[in-house]
Amino acid sequence: PLRVLPDEIARLRDLQVLTLNGNGLQQLSPAVCDLPALRVLNLFNNDLRSLPTGLGRLSQLQSLTLGVNPLPALPLDLGACRALRELNLANMPALDFAQAWPLICQLHGLEKLACYQNPLGQLPETVGQLKQLRVLRLFACQLTQLPASLAALTQLQALDLRANQLREFPFPPSCFPHMQRLDLSFNPLAG
Q: Which of 26, 57, 73, 98 would you label with 79, given CA atoms 20 to 30 Å apart?
């Protein structure tokens, strides 16, 4: 397995998509932050415990997949990735979501957010700032209630809340005029 990405990666100035799934990577070279054309960075299922500072310099980055990594924190400059449309933080129980949510909620252009299979317990009210969200995947997150600010996400087309601890879904259909898929399976919803 590829444990370390060499710094020479920075020579690929036109690289747009970098996929490093399942390589057992333990660290990501800071040189990745110097890839000006990078649009997609997929680091799913590695052994990353930190990310280099400088990710905010990836001004073209549209999709970032970090799921299934033991990262305890997101880089503080993540909010500078203004082009980011898709973020995957699935199955990352080591991630401090109290630290992560303020960074995530700075990504006002975000359209897809996957935080499933994390012990979230609750969502912050600031999630309502992500007004461009079309897809929100939060299954198996131990959610017991939903913040009122979720109603501000009027562009939602798909909301996956399977396998949580929700007793109610307190939003009228008019809140989500574009909704195409709502999954509330395996929740103890009251009749």
A: 26
**Model confidence pTM above 0.90:** yes
Side chain identity at residue 40, one-letter code: V
Dihedrals φ, ψ of 24, to 5°? 70, 20
SS3 per residue for the chain: CCCECCHHHHHCCCCCEEECCCCCCCECCHHHHHCCCCCEEECCCCCCCCCCCCHHHCCCCCEEECCCCCCCCCCCCHHHCCCCCEEECCCCCCCCHHHHHHHHCCCCCCCEEECCCCCCCCCCHHHHHCCCCCEEECCCCCCCCCCHHHHHCCCCCEEECCCCCCCCCCCCHHHCCCCCEEECCCCCCCC
Token digits of residue 82:
């203004």
